[in-house]
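G., the chain you wanted modeled:
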Amino acid sequence: MINELEEQKIKPWAGGRFSQPIKRRRFVVGDVHGCICTLRKMVEEVIQLEPDDTLFLLGDYIDRGPDSKGVLDYLLRLYNSDYDIRPLLGNHEQMLLDAVADPSTRSLWYGNGGWETLRQFGVDSPESIPQIYIKFLSFLPLTYLLDDYLLVHAGLDFQKADPIKESTPNDLLWARDYRVDSTKLDGRTLITGHSVTPLFEIKESLATKHIKLDNGCYSKGEISCGALVALNMDTRELLMQQNIESTN
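Predicted structure as C-alpha cells:
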C-alpha cells in the first residue's frame, strides 16, 4: 500500500525530475495495458534495470489487461525507490483523467476498457479512484525531446510546418496513419506506441526514422502480436517479453 509520505514525493518529480540529465543506459518500453507480470519481467529480468539507467515508457499503462492498478503501483514503487523512470501520458490515461473531470466523457473510456479498470481498482466510478493515481497521471508529459529521439505516445501532425512545436495534444495522444516527414524531425528518430504493430513491422522500423513499439501486449496468443516490446535507445536493439499474464 502506498502511504501518504510516498504520495507527497510526486510533486517534486513533476517540478524537475523529468528535466534532469539522462543516465548511463537508456531504454523505452511500449504500451503495457495492465500487463503487470509481463512489465515486471521486462524491467527486472530482460532489461535488468539499474538505478543509474533511464527508463522511458510510452503511455497506456491501464485498460484492456488484467491489472491496471498493479501497473501504476509498480511504476510508483520504481519512482519512490529512486529509479529514473520517465513515463509519458497515453490516450487511455487521458480518457481516465477526462472521465474524472467530466462525466459526459465517460462512455468513451468505458468502451475502451474503463469498466474493467474500475473493477481492478475496486471502485464503481472514476472519481473514487484514489487521488495518488490521478495526481500521478496528471503530471505526466506528452513528449520527450532528446538530441537523437522524439518520444510521443501516438504521433505528430506532419502537415504542420513544425510538427514538433505545433502538433496538438490530440495529435500526440491519438494520431494514426500519418506519413512521417523526417526532414521535420531535426535529425531525430520518432518513437511511438499506440497503434498495434506486428512484430516483423516493428523490426523493420528500426532502420527508419519512425520506430514503433506497440505489439499489443494484452493480445495474448494473437499471431505476431502479444509481446511487450522495449528498445535499447543506445544500441537500437529490440527487447521482447511475451505476455505471461494468468488466464485464470
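The domain at 24-143+196-242 is CATH 3.60.21.10 (Purple Acid Phosphatase; chain A, domain 2).

Shout if anything looks off.
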